[in-house]
Each structure stands twice: as C-alpha cells, then as structure tokens.
C-alpha cells in the first residue's frame, strides 16, 4: 500500500513539473529592471516574473506594478496610478483620485526618509497631460522613485494594449525574493 502511495505522489509531481515547464512560457515572462525609477520597491538589476495573461482574466487595478512597451525596443516597469476616467491630482504629497484622498501605503517608509521635502511634487492631470481625465483604454503610470522617474508626467498616458503583464514576483537577488505586493 505504501508503495502505491509513493508511486502516486511521484507521478503527481512529474505531471506537475511537466505542466509547469510547458505552461510557464505561455503565462510568464522574465524581466530585468533597468534603472532606478521604481526604487525603493524595485532596484536596478532585479529579476522579475511578469504574468502575461492576468489581464485577460481581470481588470488592471490601481497600484498594480506593470511592465509595458514604450516602443518596439524598450519596455518600462511602473506603477498604475490612474485608471480610465480618473481625475488625478497630487497636492501636498497626497494623491487625490476623483477628488478623494487615496493613501499610497507603499511609499510611507520612503516619505519619512525623504524628510520635510515632498516626495511627489504637486501636479494635476490637466497640467501634465492637457486633459482632465484619463482617457478610455488608457492608464497613468508613475515610478515609485518620484523625483527620478520618466513616467506619464513626461510621456503621457499609456494604452492598456501596451501592457506586457503584471509583476508577480521579484526573484533576484535571492535575499530580496518576494511577492511584489501592493495595497
């Protein structure tokens, strides 16, 4: 009886490994962070596992960390701040979406390190994009390193179809291995 159980467990493990090996390239892509725009969340050289199919199953959420195509040769990793139809404003280092304050918990430890200076400079969507609301099928994205990030404040909105996927896991360096969680 014990021999049968061991055999069943071994077969299950082998099937699981085969399925993982076959499905991994369909579901995930590896990505290496290039630059400092997502510090302190992600650092230059971090290796990420990006889920390519998640947005076929669910909508993009505010604060998701995503990889998207900037052009044919370049991808960026940024955090989603504005969703379609959102009105955005930063005032006194606080994010307001559609007039309501939205806490950015992931930035709190770094705001404290930043001292008295604002971590995110004041702006509203109209100032930086020329439009009052995020357009349909578009997103407003920002890096977590607000003072050193090329993001939607500079290049405008991204189209949802530019998204490569959602960052699920930071797996290198090993001592920093973690699920990239967002509030």
Q: Describe it for me?
A:
This protein is α+β, with helices and mostly antiparallel strands. It has a single domain, classed as Umud Fragment, subunit A. It contains 5 helices and 12 strands. Strands 1, 2, 3, 4, 9, 10, 11 and 12 form an 8-stranded antiparallel beta sheet that branches. A 4-stranded antiparallel beta sheet has the order 7-6-5-8. A hairpin with a 2-residue loop joins strand 5 and strand 6. The longest helix has 26 residues. The protein starts with a helix and ends with a strand. The model has no long low-confidence stretch (mean pLDDT 86).
* Second-tier CATH architecture: Ribbon
What oligomeric assembly is this protein in? single chain
The dominant shape is elongated
The number of distinct β-strands equals: 12
**Termini separation (Å)?**
48 Å
CATH superfamily: Umud Fragment, subunit A
The number of helical segments is 5
Question: Could you state the order of secondary-structure elements as H and E?
Answer: HEEHEEEEEHEHEHEEE
Class of secondary structure makeup: alpha+beta
Major sheet size, sense and barrel closure: 8 strands, antiparallel
Q: What's the rounded overall pLDDT mean?
A: 86
CATH topology: Umud Fragment, subunit A
- How much of the sequence lies in strands comes to 25-35%
> How helical, in percent, are the residues?
10-25%
Under the CATH scheme, which class? Mainly Beta
Round the Cα radius of gyration to an integer and report it: 20 Å
